[in-house]
Amino acid sequence: MNLKRIVHMTIPVTDCRRSEEFYTKVLGMKVVMRTPPALKYGMVFLRVGNDYLILTDSETPLNVRNDDNNLLHTAFAVESDEFDAALAELEKAGVRVIARDERPDGAFVGRSAYFHDPDRNVLEIVDLQYAVFRPLRDSPKPSSERHP
User: Fold this and answer.
1) With the CA atoms of 24, 28, 29 and 32 taken in that order, what torsion angle do they form, in degrees rounded to the nearest 10?
2) Distance CA 72, CA 58 (A)
3) What CA–CA distance (Å, rounded) separates 110 from 128?
4) Residue 48 to residue 91: CA distance in whole angstroms
5) Model's pTM, two decimal places?
6) Strand 122-131's sheet: what is its strand order?
7) Using an 8 Å Cβ cutoff, are 69 and 121 in contact?
8) CATH fold label, 70-140
9) I want to staple 111 with a disulfide (CB 3.0 to 4.6 A). Which of 1, 69, 127, 128 is the partner?
10) Shortest CA distance to 78 belongs to which of 30, 130, 126?
11) What angle do CA 14, 61, 67 make, to 5 degrees?
């Protein structure tokens, strides 16, 4: 098998319309399609830059953590000069940042902030300076890559 890329990711939600409002108005994603209301489960197809995300009504109750553990999450990149403004937009929308991080090395280098969507799915915005897998900008390699 020779997979080429990820086409989309799906995030389970309890109310597609409510989540659509959060993902479009707070996070700025664009709706490209919705399933017809007559279908049993709602789906909202969103564009994120050149990628796609689908919000899907879950047929079973969501099993999300009640704490602020951010290990399981979905991450979205923002431009460096827009990171602080993105945090301000979250705050303005009443979204609580549950954790912040600034990674000087590792797989994904840069500043990040974690928060919940309306269903407590954990999301991350990251000012991605460097990914160990490929450079994204003219930036130095992480320290773990500098030495053999």
Assistant:
1) 70
2) 18
3) 5
4) 21
5) 0.83
6) 74-77, 122-131, 108-116, 97-103
7) no
8) 2,3-Dihydroxybiphenyl 1,2-Dioxygenase; domain 1 (3.10.180)
9) 127
10) 126
11) 90
Q: 126 Cβ partners below 8 Å, 6+ apart?
A: 75, 76, 77, 78, 108, 110, 111, 112, 113
pLDDT tens digit at each of 148 positions of the chain? 987 888 899 999 999 989 999 999 999 999 999 998 777 778 999 999 999 999 999 877 777 777 888 888 999 999 999 999 999 999 999 999 999 999 888 888 899 999 999 999 999 999 988 877 765 555 455 444 443 3
Q: Count how many residues are written for the chain.
A: 148
Q: Is 113 helix (H, G, I), strand (E, B) or coil?
A: strand
Domain locations in the chain? Answer: 1-59, 70-140
